[in-house]
Amino acid sequence: MKQSILLIALCIGFFSCNTETKPAEAKTDSAVVKEALVYPFTPKYSLKWQPGDEKNALIVLNCLKHYTDGDVKGAFADFADTVTFLANKFHYRGTKDSLAALFTADRAGYASMSKVFDTWLTAYYPDKDDTWVTLWYTEITTDKKGKTDSLYYTDDVLIKNGKIQEYDEKQRQFPAPMAKK
Asked: How far apart are CA 121 and CA 131, in angstroms?
């Protein structure tokens, strides 16, 4: 019995004398106190967003795939009946059918077209009940005369009830190659 008590006492003493230090537990986001930020500008739109449903990105990507393939009718299948389209020196608000007619004429001028995507982001704004899909990509076109060109795009697309309601396209031209010396 004395041996059992001694063994138990030694075990307790051994485990209680463990001097191993454990790393501090990482703070979770909920434990971090967020500092109130004072921005130098006031945004026109909400800053409160969360990741949105990726099905909305699929709607936009399918639209662009149809357009790239020359299927303008398919590209406009998921547009709302009334749509706003903004682009460089272009502002349209009206029916999707009239906009599709404009794009049919534009797409007919190209022999080929491709898009290379950097990424996209689907954001849901709960205070507005809006879902926006933002895309970053390069479009490469070859016109009917054989001239190839490329533009970089950043598109913001508003999806409401599974339909494209607003398409805001921003483009950047690439600089001409530097002349060889």
From this structure: 10
Helix, strand or coil, per DSSP, at residue 15? helix
Output the CA angle 106-111-112, nearest 5 degrees: 95
What DSSP designation does 149 have? E
Assess contact for 6 and 12: CB atoms under 8 A.
no
pTM of whole model > 0.85?
no
Q: Phi-psi bin for 170: left (phi > 0), alpha (psi -120 to 50), beta?
A: beta
CA distances from 40 to 37, 43, 117 (A): 10, 10, 32
pLDDT along the chain (181 residues), means of 10: 44 47 50 85 94 98 98 98 97 98 97 98 97 98 97 98 98 88 75
Distance CA(5)–CA(140), nearest Å, equals 83
Residues sharing a CB contact under 8 Å with residue 144, sequence separation 6 or more, in sequence order: 109, 110, 111
- For the chain, the straight-line distance linking the first and the last C-alpha, in angstroms and rounded, comes to 97
Report the C-alpha gap between 146 and 109 in whole angstroms: 11
Three-state SS string across 64-118, please? HHHHHCCCHHHHCCCEEEEEEEEECCEEEEEEHHHHHHHHHHHHCCEEEEEEEEE
